[in-house]
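One example given next:
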Amino acid sequence: MPENEVKKSGGLVKHEGPDLKREGLFSYFRNSWIEFKKVVWPERADAVRMTIFVVIFVAILAAFIYVVDSSISWLFFDVLLKRG
């Protein structure tokens, strides 16, 4: 079995490999900062374009959910229960 393979037995997951070393708090933040500096950020124009796309998509999805909710509410209360 490879060194870092995870083995399932009877619903439990057993890790068979080297023990994971606990890091200190400062080491964690240092490593996080190193990884943060590796991030490739999009250009401003791309970020603005993606943000506008997300806002438009959320507005369309909200309108769709409103229409479906209103339709189901109308169907349930006005048609099936005849409370109009």
